[in-house]
């Protein structure tokens, strides 16, 4: 089975802190994604990557950056956390570079910024 | 821009009753359509997907969905709901040239 793991289930940070959310997948997938999930808004794509060191902006990239130094790992970085970034963050991966491929999700990280 | 609409924010169904969750998409090209389920505190799990061929798609946990091009719909159905089906359900769409667009979700509540 595909396994996507996220480094933390719950995280509490203070405004202005630099925050790293880590995601690892074990199925050699090319594509990796970061979403944020907010009540009533569904899932919104922040960034995605289709190869090592490649990244593309999603629908809401402002305030975020990403890093993909290794194929299996995709990190989401909040350079200076703000209260409006309090949310559930979901990582996903999918094989190949066809966008119709199934995405496999991690359990999510619930981030609270105080 | 492509979009996915799930008209129902919440639905309550009695255990054992049938279920239909609605999903409509707006884009002209051949769609790739997905239904995901999210149990409380968990990530999303794929229930089923449609790429082409038979418009009635079977998925896991006894779910099925029917693609209707004329109505731009991909509604999810289950003949008899179990209490463990209580969760949030997301419809998603891709044109094949873009990443997934998700609907805002429908929360399913199951009453005894």
Characterise the protein shown here.
- The complex is a heterodimer of chains A (114) and B (112).
- By secondary structure, chain A is mainly beta.
- Chain A is 0% helix and 52% strand.
- Chain A has no helices and eleven strands.
- Chain A has strands at 4-6, 10-13, 19-25, 31-38, 42-49, 56-57, 65-70, 73-78, 87-94, 104-105, 109-113.
- In chain A, the strands form two sheets. In chain A, strands 2, 4, 5, 6, 9, 10 and 11 form a seven-stranded mixed beta sheet that branches. Chain A has a four-stranded antiparallel beta sheet with strand order 1-3-8-7, with no helix packed on it.
- The N and C termini of chain A lie far apart (37 Å).
- In chain A, 36% of the residues are buried.
- The model of chain A has no long low-confidence stretch (mean pLDDT 92).
- Chain B is mostly beta strands and 112 residues long.
- Chain B has strands at 3-5, 10-14, 19-21, 24-26, 32-38, 44-50, 56-58, 64-68, 73-78, 87-94, 101-102, 106-111.
- Chain B contains no helices and twelve strands.
- Chain B is globular, with a radius of gyration of 13 Å.
- The mean pLDDT of chain B is 91.
- Helix content of chain B is 0%, strand content 52%.
- The interface between A and B is medium-sized, with 22 and 24 residues.
What series of H and E elements makes up the topology of chain B? EEEEEEEEEEEE
Spatial gap, N to C terminus of chain A:
37 Å
Q: Tell me the distance between the termini of chain B.
A: 41 Å
The total of beta strands of chain B comes to: 12
Largest sheet: number of strands, sense, barrel closure of chain A: 7 strands, mixed
Radius of gyration of chain B: 13 Å
**Mean of pLDDT of chain B:** 91
Characteristic key phrases:
A: 114 residues, mainly beta, seven-stranded mixed sheet, 11 strands, 0% helix, B: 112 residues, six-stranded mixed sheet, four-stranded antiparallel sheet, globular
């Amino acid at each position: 089975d595909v396994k996507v793991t996220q480094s933390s289930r719950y995280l509490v940070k203070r405004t202005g802190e630099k925050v790293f959310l880590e995601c690892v997948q074990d199925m050699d997938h090319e594509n990796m994604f970061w979403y944020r999930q907010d009540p009533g808004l569904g899932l919104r794509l922040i960034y995605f990557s289709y190869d090592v060191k490649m990244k593309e902006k999603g629908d809401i990239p402002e305030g975020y950056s990403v890093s993909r130094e290794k194929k299996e790992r995709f990190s989401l970085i909040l350079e200076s956390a703000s209260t409006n970034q309090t949310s559930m963050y979901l990582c996903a991966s999918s094989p190949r570079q066809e966008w119709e491929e199934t995405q496999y999700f991690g359990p999510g990280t619930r981030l609270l910024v105080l | 821009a492509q979009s996915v609409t799930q008209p129902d924010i919440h639905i309550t169904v009695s255990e054992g009753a049938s279920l239909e969750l609605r999903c409509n998409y707006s884009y002209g090209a051949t769609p790739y359509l997905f239904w995901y389920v999210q149990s409380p505190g968990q990530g999303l799990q794929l229930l089923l997907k449609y790429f082409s061929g038979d418009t009635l798609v079977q998925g896991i946990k006894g779910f099925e969905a029917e693609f209707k091009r004329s109505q731009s719909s991909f509604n999810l159905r289950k003949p008899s709901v179990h209490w463990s089906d209580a969760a949030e359900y997301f419809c998603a769409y891709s044109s094949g040239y873009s990443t997934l667009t998700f609907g805002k979700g429908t929360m399913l509540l199951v009453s005894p």
